Amino acid sequence: MIKLLVLVSGLIVAAPEAGDERLEVNVSTSNVKWIGAKIGGSHNGSITLTKGVLDMEKGLLKGGSFVIDMRTISCEDLQGKYKGKLEDHLKSDDFFSVETFPSASFIITKSVPQGPGAYDVEGDLTIKGITKSIKFPALVEETDGGYIATADITVDRSEYDVKHRSSSFFDGLGDRVIYDEFTLAVNLTASK
């Protein structure tokens, strides 16, 4: 009888609280868009998500993560051979070394509500096997069937050993500089 009581009390402690939800991100309706800039212009495109989760507690964002397939980097503002050349260059060792590092990931370590649907999010971003803590604002909207989480995340590529034409690593680049910061516009949809 004592063993049964210990077992039951252990199950009660381990059971999630009412209102806790771990929701799978729907990768077919979610997306990640990127924008990178250089002197005199910019390029933009997308990257495919492979998986993700949103951890909700009583309707509030408590955690989550997502993984993107770096091999799917695509450029959306160029066509033909220029599109292919830029995509191949971004996948090369000059930039993201996707053959060696085929995925990148983000894990939420802290989420602080800032008003209805607004959060300050902190987490660990891993690119090229290098993990750095980043912070950014995010919005989470409840829908009839789940949640939509959106954020514009500014990433400093120099912190992830992406050196090509970076003024953080090379002098005298002049107007050939590619800015270190690029933006990831993340849109995650998750169903209950």
Description of the molecule:
This protein is mostly beta strands. 13% of the residues lie in helices and 56% in strands. It has two helices and nine strands, in the order αββββαβββββ. It has an eight-stranded antiparallel barrel with strand order 2-3-4-5-6-7-8-9. A hairpin with a 2-residue loop joins β3 (41-57) and β4. It starts with a helix and ends with a strand. Residues 1-17 have low confidence and may be disordered.
Strand content: over 45%
Q: Fraction of residues in helices?
A: 10-25%
Could you tell me the radius of gyration in angstroms?
20 Å
Q: DSSP helix count? A: 2
Q: What is the SS-derived class?
A: mainly beta
What is the average per-residue confidence, as pLDDT, rounded to a whole number? 85
Side-by-side strand order of the widest sheet? 2-3-4-5-6-7-8-9
Shape estimate: globular
Low-pLDDT segments: 1-17
User: Count the strands?
Assistant: 9
Give the gist of this structure.
By secondary structure, this protein is mainly beta. It has helices spanning 2-14, 80-91; strands spanning 20-24, 31-38, 41-57, 60-75, 103-115, 118-127, 130-142, 146-156, 178-191.
List descriptors.
mainly beta; eight-stranded antiparallel beta barrel; globular
Write the topology of this structure:
Elements: H1 2-14, E1 20-24, E2 31-38, E3 41-57, E4 60-75, H2 80-91, E5 103-115, E6 118-127, E7 130-142, E8 146-156, E9 178-191
Antiparallel strand pairs: 1-3, 2-3, 2-9, 3-4, 4-5, 5-6, 6-7, 7-8, 8-9
